[in-house]
Each structure stands twice: as C-alpha cells, then as structure tokens.
Design goal:
The chain has helices at about 30-45, 60-65, 90-100, 120-130, 145-150, 175-180, 225-240, 245-255, 270-275, 285-300, and strands spanning about 5, 10, 15, 50, 75-80, 105-110, 140, 160-165, 185-190, 260-265. By secondary structure, it is of the alpha/beta class.
C-alpha cells in the first residue's frame, strides 16, 4: 500500500469503498462477510474508508461503526449525504456520527447535486460544521464545474469525488483541470468500472435482479460489445506485464497528478487482501501507455451521459 500525508493522517492511496457492503444494489451480501472484509482491510493497511448514508440506507455506516473504534485515530473516514435542504444537513451529519460511533468525520460530501436545491446554503452549513470540528473537510461528489463554482460562493471545496477510470474519462475535459487550478483534491470511485476492469465478466451474462449494474451505461446493448473487446485487449497487456488488470487499472488512475486516492470495493476478506496489494507490482510506462491507447479507442463508443447511472436528481 502507498500513502500520502493528509493533515495528521496517512491516507491510503487505495481506499476501501463500502457501497457493496450496504447490502442493497449489488445483490446478496452477508454482514459477516462485510465485517470480515473491513477488519482484514484495516489490518492490512487500508486507512481510507469511504461510505455514504445511501449505502443500505445507513447500514454500511452501522457496520463500519462496529469495527473502527480501536483504529479510529489512524483511519480517514468519509461519508456522504444526498443534497437536501440546508436546515437538514446538520442532523444528517449527526446521524452518520452516531451510526459510526465517532465524534468527527475526516471528510463529508454532498453525494449528488440537486437541481431543486440551492447549493450555496448547503455549503454554508458544511463550512459551519467544519469550523465546529464535526467534519474536518468539505467535499462534493458528481458535481459539474458550474455547480462547484456555485458552491464556492459559500466557501472552499476541499475534495471532489468523481467517477473516473479507463472506461470513463469525461472529467478530463473540465472537472479535473478545474480541481487542479483551484487546489481541490480529487478521489475517484468506480475505479474498476463497476467491476468490469477485473476482467471477470463474460461476453454474455445475466445480472441478479437486485444488482444495479445492469442499468449502467457500460452494459447498454450498443456499448457493452465495445467495452468487452477493450477489456480483452487490456487483459493481454496485463498478461504481458505480469500484473493483474485491476492493479494496472488502479495504477493508471493514480498516475494522474490531480488524483489523490482511488476507491475499490470488497465483499469479503479475500477481496480486501487482494485490494491492499494492488500497488505492489509496478506497471511499466509502456503498459500504462498501451492502456491509454485502448482507452482512447473505446471511449468513442461510450456516451457522455453525464454519469454512468444516467441519474439526474
């Protein structure tokens, strides 16, 4: 594992994403497997734990609360809330604190912007909570440049969490440059493109009905064949390099100077152990360049839908 300094903490450059352990949206998931994954991940070096109130309607936060007490001061805990009226933000933050049994959060995001809610007043409340020490950094997730500009009328954005991977690079046009220019740290989610960049999906497959991924852009009937073929080409690069494709995919993202940490999920202790070692084998410049070429080619077929979920709150 690699780390960067973040205040008084060491932030793992690969973060533990907890959407899957919330127990909804990804098919069946047992709490015992989830707790084992968290414990094993922390034991082996994850310090960055990312969650959200939407993950199992708070269940992921509750599971995190069961395992972090002995390690709290070395852990960087981030959570999120959907964009809601400003007068409800403080009680939402307090709910996350209670679920995770902690008196502060290292980072708190507005999960998605809403066209129905004014953003600046929401940001003002988060800035107040930061000044009180309940949260240590203010973040936004899935925001456009215009929405970030709106937020920053009320105070600085410390972090932007965005979807970014070899299969989703639209942020390169404006979001990443804006964050760099304004010294906003960036953290990526769906770094393995909803699991596609593990290389485990066959050409033809059927998702469990409870798994949200069937509705993402990547699996649309006119997109998936191109994605599948691109991943097959990426697998060849990984085999030639002697490095797993997930490791190459994460290293490709983290080579970008604007990106501080990348999130990956784990269903069980084995997957947590595998994720901790993603940076152990270093990719060559040639392999990373080849991945960029394959990515450039497949991005022609991936629609700029705003986000991979076609979700527009």
């Amino acid at each position: 594992m690699e780390y960067i300094k973040w205040g008084d903490k060491e932030l793992s450059r690969v973060g533990f994403g907890t959407w899957v352990i919330g127990g909804n949206d990804w098919g069946l998931q047992s709490d015992s497997d989830s707790i084992d994954a968290l414990r094993e991940g922390i034991r082996r070096g994850f310090t960055h734990i990312d969650t959200a109130q939407a993950y199992g309607h708070g269940h992921a936060e509750e599971l995190i609360g069961k395992v972090i007490s002995k390690h709290r001061e070395k852990l960087f805990i981030a959570s999120k809330t959907v964009c809601r009226p400003s007068h409800k933000i403080e009680q939402t933050v307090q709910l996350s604190l209670r679920r995770m049994k902690t008196d502060y959060l290292d980072l708190y995001y507005i999960h998605w912007p809403s066209s129905r809610i004014e953003l600046a007043p929401v940001m003002e409340i988060l800035q107040k909570l930061k000044s009180q020490g309940l949260i240590r950094a203010v973040g936004v997730s899935n925001f456009s440049v215009a929405q970030m500009v709106d937020c920053m009328r009320a105070g600085p954005i410390d972090v932007h969490q965005l979807c970014y991977s070899l299969l989703w690079r639209w942020a390169e046009r404006d979001v990443l440059p804006y964050c760099k220019e304004n010294r906003i740290k960036t953290i990526t989610y769906s770094t393995l493109a909803q699991g596609i960049l593990t290389g485990k999906f066959p050409r033809n497959f059927v998702f469990n009905k409870a798994d949200h991924r069937h509705s993402t852009v990547f699996f649309e009937h006119d997109v998936w064949p191109h994605v599948y073929n691109a991943v097959a080409e990426m697998q060849k690069v990984a085999q030639q390099e002697g490095v797993s494709l997930p490791s190459l995919a994460v290293q490709w993202v983290l080579q970008k100077e604007t990106i501080h940490s990348s999130l990956v999920g784990a269903r069980n202790a084995l997957q947590a152990r595998q994720n901790v070692s993603l940076l152990d084998s270093k990719a060559s410049d040639f392999a990373l360049k080849k991945l960029t070429e394959i990515s450039d080619a497949v991005m022609v077929y991936i629609p700029d839908a705003g986000n991979i979920f076609r979700y527009y709150p």
